[in-house]
Amino acid sequence: MKKNIVEVKVENGTNEILQHAVDSIYKSGGGSIMIGPGIFEMQDSLHLKTGVKIYGTQGRTVLKKSRCVSSDLSADLGYGHYDVSVKRPDLFNVGMGIHIIDDSGRGFYGTVATIIWKNGDKLGIDKMLNHDYARIRHARVSTEFPVISGYYVRDALVQGITIEGNKDENDFIDGCRGGGIFLLQCHGVNLSNILVEKYAGDGISYQQCTRLLIENCEIRNNSGSGLHPGSGSTGVIMRNCKIIKNDNDGVFYCLRVGFTLLENCEISNNGNDGISIGARDTDHIIRENTITDNARHAIYFRKADEVMGGHRNLIEGNIISENCRKIGMGEVFIENVNCDIWFRKNQITCGKKSKYGIVANNLCKRICIAKDNSFVCCKKEKMPSIKSGIFEEVIPKKLSVGPEYVNNNSIRHLGILEE
């Protein structure tokens, strides 16, 4: 059987050239796209498709986000409609990606879509509006979008691409709808050897996804977090990545993310926490990472009640060193109520501002710190003292965490079942 392969060889191009190649391969049943060296001006996302593999030329295939333009609305907009009305229609053209928000319609209530027709002040879009947007609530439309985007995609691959986010000429977009790479309800997608830098939002954000593989990527100097695992995503592997100098967290586990592996990553010099966990983010393995020089904690378990806590997480073999560069009192900080957090074989070194190795709120339960952890230059290894009943030393022998333990019960909240 002949393999479907399309080669793209242009030194300067647009997203339209790349999208045409993706769509052609998809319509022919799937295959591979080989993109040579070149700079591609992105007026809209490169939209991934099921069964299509995209290979760039490492370090030389650059997708650059276009400069943002924006306009206030000229009329209020209704949920479920497929057009927007803008005061400055002259700024927009068919084929542009846009982001629609107002003061109460942000995050998942924002809409990202592509303009498919234009008539007077009206712009037709390919996705329905996710909210009612009103002029009184400062509704606006801007050409913000993910540089690479995947909706409902299975078994795709992106490799060897550089994403230049051009954040100085763009407005911030929330990770619920945007990112240098953004995936929604995607399954079995592989992202490897990708550089995402200077995007006005998160580097890589994925929501309601399963069994992704994100490896050997560098995510740096973005305006949001580096990696944003979100909204029920399950069974994802993130490994061998360099996540540095992002304005917010290095890795932000959002809502109900489960059974992931974060392994052998460098997470350093980020503007908030190295890793942030909370809101039913459970059953993860965080293993053999180097987490250093972040502005706040190396690992932060966010405040929650017992229903919403980030329970059953294994923290193993990490080098945690000299965080709390700007604020914070502990390298690891566990707010209430988080339970069953297991620490094994970690090397924790306190810096000038981090007094404690591990701090836990007095409502936490079963914070297990094995004797094989190493604490260096810490005023105290643990706070409060081990006599408080919060801390234990014996880790259960059987820990059913990480991607290996994904099953139908762990993904049914996404409305899918595995065969």
UniProtKB/TrEMBL annotation:
The keyword tRNA processing does not apply. Keywords: Repeat. It comes from the Bacteria. Residues 160-326 form the Periplasmic copper-binding protein NosD beta helix domain. Pfam families: NosD (PF05048). PANTHER family: F-BOX ONLY PROTEIN, F-BOX ONLY PROTEIN 10. This is Periplasmic copper-binding protein NosD beta helix domain-containing protein. It comes from candidate division TA06 bacterium ADurb.Bin131.
